[in-house]
Amino acid sequence: MTKIAILVFLEVSALIGLGGCQRGSASTEPSTHPPANATAPLDSIELEPAMLAQIKIERVQRKNWPRVLTATGKVQLNEDQTARILAPLAGQALELNARIGDRVSKDQALFSIKSREVAALVTDCLQGQRDEDLAQKTYNMTKDLFEHQAASKIALQQAEADLTKAKAQVARAEESLRVLGLDPQQVLATSGVRALVPVRSPISGIVMERNLTQGQFVQGDSTPLITVADLSTVWVLVDVFEQDIHLVHPGQRVQVTATAYPDRHFTAQVDRISDRVDPDSRTLKVRLLVSNPGLLLKPEMFITASVTVSETTPGVTVPSTALFTEGDRSYAFVAVGERRFVRREVHATPAGEGRMRVTSGLSPGDPVVSDGTLLLQLKQQEQLQN
Length: 386
Known about the structure:
Layout: H1 2-28, E1 44-46, E2 56-59, E3 61-76, E4 82-85, E5 91-94, E6 103-104, E7 109-114, H2 116-147, H3 153-179, H4 184-189, E8 196-200, E9 205-210, E10 217-218, E11 226-229, E12 233-241, E13 253-258, E14 261-277, E15 283-291, E16 302-319, E17 324-326, E18 329-335, E19 340-352, E20 355-360, E21 367-371, H5 373-385
Antiparallel strand pairs: 1-19, 2-21, 3-12, 3-16, 4-11, 5-7, 5-10, 6-9, 7-8, 9-11, 12-15, 13-14, 13-16, 14-15, 16-20, 17-18, 18-19, 19-20
Helix pairs in contact: 2-3
């Protein structure tokens, strides 16, 4: 009996130990099957049948596309068509006739300056004119006397020298007035009552900046008071990575789009390539000369420049409408059933003609949503909230 009892006890203990090991093993290895109450992944959206009419699906295509180099930048004034207008001399600014945004013509007076220097020049011009008249009369009289042997040749030569000197003084005074933008004949006709210096625009264009108020005292230095720019063409500065700079050359045609006008294309060409590499970004500045019909492009606008740099190469493309961004990432919705769609992260670059070249995330033949992504995004937000 004792041996039988011991054997039964050992068998029961072994069974209990085996059961415990099995339970321990089950608790340390995760199950590969989802629980019965598991929900669909958050990146998966299912639409009601009535909503499917708002969704358009297009297959991912593999097609030959030209290699396009893209770069971003900002619009800047074309400095070759920009005038920064200074005060020609110190004085008080009057007759201010230019506001920011005004269109002005070449030689249009923008403001005038009243100055003591101008008054002195006008006085010199008037006095020189009187001295010239007197010297002319003296010369005529002396010449007449000399011809009648009533004056010496030395007296005639002195009268002639005085007349020449008076004419030179008048010429210098008139030239000083012309340098300041004054018409000597007009000044003499008005006896110099106003003696204002008109400051004119050297080009036709738009007033972009004004650092001047009516009655302000200005210095005749290098501080620009008014900036006028012709916006028929503008500059765009873009950053091109050093490994791509060999693909760019002056005169190359470029297509430019602006964030403000995504459906509008502007023609441009490479105007200048910087000789310096930015040590932090490893990029070079490339200046584009852009035609600006309608003067739509404004300074500081963000733009994207695209240039075809090689022959066509095969690539996977989707419509640009198929992609949407969240933060700094791009996504697309792919149909995985009659009413179910999943979100996939996609890496892509512009391919032109309203399409994006996919570098990862999609494969040829994948059914992507090309129209209706906003509806799926809203549906996904509802799913997250629930």
